[in-house]
Each structure stands twice: as C-alpha cells, then as structure tokens.
Amino acid sequence: MDESGVGISNRIIVFDTTLRDGEQSPGAALNVEEKVEIARVLEAMGVGVIEAGFPISSPGDFRAVQHISREIRNCTICGLTRARREDIEAAAEALKGAANPRIHTGLGVSDVHVRSKLRTTREGALEMGVNAVRLAKQYVDDVQYYAEDAGRADPLYLYQVLEAVITAGATVVNIPDTTGYTTPEEFGALIRGIMSNVPNIDRAVVSVHCHNDLGMATANTLAGVRNGARQVEVTVNGIGERAGNASLEEVVMALRTRKDVYPVEIDFDATRLYPVSRLVSSLTGIPVQPNKAIIGSNAFAHSSGIHQDGVLKERTTYEIINPREVGVPDSEIILSARSGRHGLRHRLAELGYHLDDAKFEKVYHRFLQVADKKKTVETRDLEAIVSDEAEKFFTETYHLEHVQISCGDHSIPTATVRIKGPDGEVHCDADHGTGPVDAIYRAINRVIGEPNELIEFSIEAITEGIDAVGRVTIRIQAADPVNGDGKSGGRTVFSGHGADNDIIVASAKAYMFALNRLIAARRESERAEGKPAPAGSASPAAAQSGSQA
Predict the structure, then answer these.
(1) pTM score, two decimals?
(2) Is the distance from CB of 379 to CB of 367 less than 8 angstroms?
(3) Is there a single domain that holds both residue 275 and residue 413?
(4) In the predicted model, is pLDDT for residue 156 greater than 80?
C-alpha cells in the first residue's frame, strides 16, 4: 500500500507517446521547442512517462530527447530504441540529463516479424532481446521492453519472451497491438493470459500500446486495464501512424467516468485535456474532427430539441461528463473592442493561456483588429489568435507586412507582397497565378526563394457567420534540413497555419508560417553541425529558381 492507502497495483500510469509515435503522423513534424512546450503541459497534467523520441533516428530527435530530459523533472523521460547496441547507446547519451530516464527497447514477437522482418528464428530473436535489455540496464535502472506485434503472436512464445526479458532486468513489458488487428475480447484475453502464465510477471508493470486501424484502440486499451495492465500508452487527440493510437483523452475519461467498471486510481488533471488538445492540433497542423469524443467542438453540443430540453432541466440527462472537467471553456464572458487588456488577460487565463508580456501584447493588438471587424470575439476566435501570435516556437526570419490581391472572373489573379527580411530590409514584389492564393505564393517565392512543394491546403471557418475568422492550414515539402538536398528521398514536411477575417490573408500567413519553420529548422541543423548560420535562407535575386507552391 502507498501513503494514500490505495494499492500500488491499482494505480494507472499514463505513458504519453505524442512526441514519438504521434509525431509519426504524416506532416506532424515538430521542432525541439514545440516538443518541449508540449512536454511541459503533459508534465503539468500528471502524465507519468513521456516518450520524448527515437534518439538515433535523427539529430533532431536526439536533441529533443536531450532538451526534454533536462527540462522536465517530474516525469519519467523515455527514449525508444531498436534492440541494437548503437540505438541503446544513443538513447543513453540523450537521456543523460533526465531525473528519471527510461530506455524502451524491443523486437517483434509474431512469426511474420521474426521471419520476414528480423530474418531470424524465435530463439535468435529471444537472445537478441535479452542482450538488448542487459545492455540497457548498464545505463539506466528503468528498462521497458516492447514485444512488437504481440496481438498476432503465438501466446506461448510471447510468455517465454516476457519471462526472459524480465529476468534480464526489464521493469516494464509493453504488449502492443501494432497493427490494430485484435478485438477487445481477444486483447483482454491476451493480457489475462500473460498475467496467469508468465511466472515473474509480478516483477514488471504490464503496459498496453494499441493502434486504431479497426477503430478499437481505446476499447482494446481499456480491455487491457480490466485484465491487469497498469500502464496505458496513448497520444493527444489519438494521433499516430496510419489510423493513429489510443486517445489520451478517451482513455483517461473512460477510467475516471466508469470507476464501476475499472476500479483503478489515476492521478491526472483532466481540466488540461482541452487546452493540450488545441495546442497539439495547432503545432502539428492536424485538426480535431468536430465529433471527436471528449474534446471535439460538438462533444458537448446539443442540437436536438429533446436533448436541449433535457439538459436544461438536468445536465446529466444527456451529459455523462461535465465539460468543465476536461477544460472546455465556458462562454459567459463576451469580449469586444471595449473589453480592454484586463478583460482579455482574464479570459485567456480561463482558457489556460498564461502569456508573458511580449506575447500578450501581440495577442492584444491582433484581438483589437479582429474586434474591429466583429461585434464580439468568441472563444474559438481567441484560440486562433493565440495560435497565430503566441505559439511560434521558432524565430521568424521573414515577416509579412502587407498583401494585396487583384482578381476576378475576367482578370488575371495578381498579388503584391511586402515582406521584411532578416536584415530589416523591406522587399516588395508581385506575381500572377491561376488563382489569388497561387498568385500570393508565387509572389512570396520571388522574395524568399525557398524551394518547396505545396502538398496540402485546407480552409475552415473558426466561427459561424459572414464575419467568421477563417483558418488556413497548409503543408509544404522541402529538402530535409538535416540530410541535404532531398534528391535521395530526404524530404521533410512542414505545416503552417494562419487565421484572419480575410481568407486570402490567412492563406498568406499560413505559407509564411511554414516557410519560417523550414528556415528555422535549417538554421538549427546548421548550428548543431557547427556551420555558420546564414543571414537568410536565400536572397530575392535567387528566388527565381524557387519552386512554385
């Protein structure tokens, strides 16, 4: 028993892999500063383990794990590895500054992984896994072993592997449904079988890591908990490879709401779920679908007259969760141009934003611009403003000062842009295109000259009405800032977003955001390699060679 009187075995550990598995979503690349900011919020929420990255996979991932290890002191910081010496040594180096370091290593256990991927035998894979754990134990006390594709493995072989790696020193054993193949009944039975048939299982924490290919990641995770798992591996908004992972907010709120089914304890500040969801969505450029459980914009909306009547009489008739429990903001305070700094700062604090003076002033001036065009500024407007003005975790090299468009059904779309460069000099140029956005992007390319390819462009209305703030999210693909010219497949995706009452202006802001992010990544990699950083990525004269977005 611990000091609270609750059995240790009944405590659920939240293992968040947003910064590792979640970042593997196409186009979700985060820079070091963005990862650190998300890690700070995860720490404040009560996440027990943060999987900060895969250190050997890239210099950027190595630096991210290193920075998070130094910054975050109240969580276990975990680095992923394959069962290879060089991977484990890289992770150990990156985790040196961590207060509570963990190395997460492992191998596939299904026959298709053992034979086709690892090209070895069951015995050979078992030996490799044991040796990896022993090596990792030389660097850290806390070693987690993943039995990849456990959902399709022979249970008897899986039991053998788990017993061996626990004997070798593994403190946590991760049972992944790597391909999202199993059903809750099957996955629950798998965990139950492990608890009953691995003799030394009491010496390790059983963890579950479920993918969402068949839409059952959350259900499978909860089935694992019901049958003895005590660590849940999740991501914010359920992002991740392919169809994603088990969703942090869904798993946490299911455990809190249905204690009659899951008699476990979870120490977690759920009021931060909504703010962290919006932060991750903003930084990754992956929107949250309106009907997403717990944190979607429709999660607590009632359009049916019968439902509205019931909720007005008694909230619990149609709501099993109070929106305040997950940090969904109330809309009691209405902001306008006359609200002033104090009213705005108070509302931002209610939404979970605590900005320094410099960032607040940027947000305030942008708020006044929006308030001049709208009668009232709603919560979603504020979130878009903060995302645009305060959540830039990189140095802005080029700043868009002005954009002007001429277009129509009988004219050639033409754009003029005025951009301030890194030397403080203002550049003005123009170009035409197939439409107004194409014309703007071509004009920006003439000034900045950063070769890239536009691969995704989307528009959404932040609020309702003719005066709604529009948000544009884009993704551009460019040569990998770390691995060179991109000719050998080294390509990286950068997302950008912009919000404005004028959707054309929002489009320009989104493109500038993505380009500045690209330039910042290149500068960071050059600093890491000891190269002198250039004043800017390219001169206007060189812009003619830039690709058209």
Answers:
(1) 0.81
(2) no
(3) no
(4) yes
